[in-house]
Design a protein that fits this description.
single chain, 121 residues, alpha/beta, Transcription Regulator spoIIAA, 6-stranded mixed sheet, 5 helices, globular, disordered C terminus
Length: 121
């Protein structure tokens, strides 16, 4: 059952993670592993581009929360973009839109990220 595929693009100063399908109890380890791999390689600026994400469960939200402290301690951030309305409502209802920066488009998020990166090495 291929409920989730994940593409990762490493750009200069950021990594774009594009989950496609459903992040739920059956697929959350795959999602977590993708985030953990980036972080272990020193990639602390992560954009979750969610235009092909159909659903995220509380387990998926927990995977994001489990990484944010490490990411922010290392001067990075996890941001969200291209959220479908149904997925945005999940993030919003659980308060994630107050904890994470949400952008309409990938370009907006990367622009904001590069603006914050100017003072960092």
């Amino acid at each position: 059952m291929a409920d989730l595929s994940i593409q990762v693009r490493k750009l200069d100063g950021a990594s774009v993670v594009e989950p496609c399908g459903f992040i739920n109890a059956h697929t959350v380890r795959q999602f977590e592993a993708a985030l953990e791999k980036l972080i272990s390689e020193g990639h602390y600026n992560i954009l979750l581009k969610c235009d092909n994400l159909n659903y995220i469960s509380s387990a998926g939200l927990g995977a994001i929360m489990g990484q944010i402290e490490t990411v922010r301690e290392n001067g990075g951030d996890i941001m969200l973009s291209n959220l479908r309305e149904s997925v945005f409502l999940i993030f919003d209802t659980l308060g994630f839109t107050q904890l994470y920066r949400v952008f309409e488009q990938e370009e907006d998020a990367l622009g904001a990220l590069m603006g914050t990166k100017k003072g960092h090495k």
